[in-house]
Amino acid sequence: MISRTWHGIVSIHMKDSFEKYEYETGIRDTTIIKGNMGAYLKIVEQGEYAHFFLCTKWDTMADAL
């Protein structure tokens, strides 16, 4: 199994709209790709910013590319 990670930061004021966007693209669109074994999103608020951590799981390295 292969894990891919992504980290992004947005202003805390953009958190809700970016969370919706991540679920529509980072989660929903990713999990329909052949070879995907799951996608997980963690959001951490830090002062004026929200950190987004996306982890996707893949069956093989070729699927993850």
Key attributes of the depicted protein:
Alpha-Beta Plaits; alpha+beta; 65 residues; three-stranded antiparallel sheet
Q: Do you know the CATH topology?
A: Alpha-Beta Plaits
- How many H/I helical runs? 2
Counting structural domains, the number is: 1
As laid out across the biggest beta sheet, the strand order is: 1-3-2
At CATH's second level, what is the architecture? 2-Layer Sandwich
What is the count of β-strands?
3
Tell me the strand percentage band: over 45%
**Shape type:** elongated
Radius of gyration: 13 Å
Regions with little confidence, pLDDT below 50 for 5+ residues: none
CATH class: Alpha Beta
Mean pLDDT: 94
Q: Report the biggest beta sheet as strand number plus sense, adding barrel if it closes.
A: 3 strands, antiparallel
Separation, N- and C-terminal Cα atoms: 13 Å
Proportion of residues in helical segments? 25-40%
The H-and-E topology, N to C, reads as EHEEH
**Class of secondary structure makeup:** alpha+beta
